[in-house]
Specification:
Rossmann fold; five-stranded antiparallel beta sheet; alpha/beta; 3 domains; Alpha-Beta Plaits; 14 helices; elongated
């Protein structure tokens, strides 16, 4: 298990531990939970809605994505927003969100959010990098089998009334070689599934990773392309992966090989792939992601791959199973509630990571201060000066780039003192956001 996976597993365990605390234990929560507004777009799972409603928040669910102008209007007074891959939260949209504190990306990627600008506004962003891994891996296995038997073409012919019983250029996948580009959580799941079906597995990754089973890493992308019967991509969208597979790379692949992409639409040169399919260099392709994708369902899709032989096109459904969406819903919704209720930012993708555990039950007035400020010298000294006359039970701070994050539990002799503390900290020049949480 990689460090990232261990970190994610530990986070889920800690969250479960927090959620299962015994009845009677005091829990932290915002001063006015019922005033917290959460907006869910793109048909977020009902499990996520249930988790957030159980926290006492107001929830509005919209089944589709919103365009920029709609978002600007809708996001003005919400404290949290949940999206999937179609919604774009750019700096113009986020600038209109005066109350926004947390964004939940109910998917793997976060490139649809301006992460740096969000952090500068004190907005923490969470995603679910592993919950749909099995769903994507199973889709790739299904598509490898479909491509090897040309099931897509046979299906289309049958629907058109044509009976075409052939075995030429149709193959078993047993004994064939699958080349996995990107040996992360999806790649390793796929590796295990493919090997269990009798396939040889080779993989390439920019990081040194431990192979699973009898799979073997190769020294270069070129070596993988030359050797594999099926090449499948599982990489993030970065400047280095844009057009990772272009005309030259496709030319390196075996004649009769198949290419599968369920990662990001910019990773493959679509025009070069279409040409290789039409001239017969490649025997087939399966593509689930595209450089430009419609913002809603309907007859909007166009691609140079349409009509190519033995080509499976799917509308970005790699992680779209009920099981995956439920797991994503649980993980991201729990992160939203955890951040709003306790300030826990563990596994945030753009934010310093803090998870300060609440102390033992107290009969005194105990509150938690959560503060985001500019990461410049002297701010912690100002905060500690304000808190010096009070009993600070415990505190934690961390920084990431230009953003610093501070959390402290304080026991007060008089609950009215919180007004003095809040005014003092939020009045610091470098302050971005200050919140008060209390025990209930």
């Amino acid at each position: 298990m990689s460090d990232t996976e261990r970190k994610s597993s530990a986070t889920v365990s800690r969250r479960n531990s927090f959620n299962k605390r015994e009845a009677g234990t005091k829990k932290l929560q915002p001063v006015s939970s019922e005033s917290i507004k959460i907006l869910f777009l793109e048909n977020i799972s009902e499990k996520a809605v249930e988790i957030v409603k159980n926290a006492g928040y107001q929830v509005e669910s919209v089944s589709r994505s919103l365009n920029e102008e709609e978002l600007i209007e809708k996001i003005k007074d919400v404290h949290g927003i949940g999206i999937r891959s179609k919604t774009r939260l750019n700096s113009r949209v986020l600038a209109a969100a005066d109350n926004l504190q947390v964004i939940g990306c109910f998917c793997i990627g976060t490139n649809q959010v301006d992460l740096e600008y969000a952090a500068s506004r004190g907005i923490s962003v969470f995603n679910s990098p592993f919950s749909n891994s099995r769903s994507v891996a199973e889709l790739i296995i299904a598509e490898i089998i479909m491509l090897s038997r040309k099931l897509g073409d046979r299906n289309n012919e049958m629907h058109a009334g044509e009976w075409n019983k052939v075995s030429k250029k149709c193959h078993e996948i047993r004994g064939k070689t699958v080349g996995i580009i990107g040996y992360g959580h999806i790649g390793t799941q796929l590796s295990v599934l493919a090997e269990s079906m009798g396939m040889k597995v080779i993989w390439y990754d920019v990081l040194p990773l431990m192979p699973l089973g009898r799979s073997k890493s190769v020294g270069s992308l070129e070596e993988l392309l030359v050797k594999a019967d099926y090449v499948t991509l599982h990489v993030p969208e970065t400047s280095e992966t844009k057009n990772l597979i272009g005309e030259d790379e496709i030319r390196m692949m075996k004649k009769g090989a198949c290419l599968l992409n369920a990662s990001r639409g910019t990773v493959v040169d679509i025009k070069a792939l279409a040409q290789a399919l039409r001239n017969g260099h490649l025997a087939g392709a399966a593509v689930d992601v595209f450089p430009q994708e419609p913002f809603e369902n309907g007859k909007f899709f166009e691609s140079e791959l349409a009509g190519c032989p033995n080509t499976i096109l799917t509308p970005h459904i790699g992680g779209s199973t009920e099981e995956a969406q439920r797991m994503i819903g649980i993980e991201v919704a729990s992160a939203i509630v955890g951040y709003m209720n306790t300030g826990a930012s563990l596994n945030a993708v753009n934010f310093p990571e803090i998870d300060l555990k609440p102390g033992a039950v107290s009969d005194k007035h105990r509150l938690r201060i959560v503060n985001v400020h500019q990461n410049v010298p002297g701010v912690l000294q100002k905060i500690n000066s304000i808190l010096s006359k009070y009993n600070v039970d415990k505190q934690a701070s961390d920084s990431r780039g230009e953003i610093a994050y501070y959390v402290a539990d304080i026991t007060l002799p008089d609950p009215e003192d919180i007004n003095v503390i809040y005014a003092g900290i939020s009045g610091i020049t470098e302050n971005i956001i200050t919140r008060v949480l209390f025990e209930k």
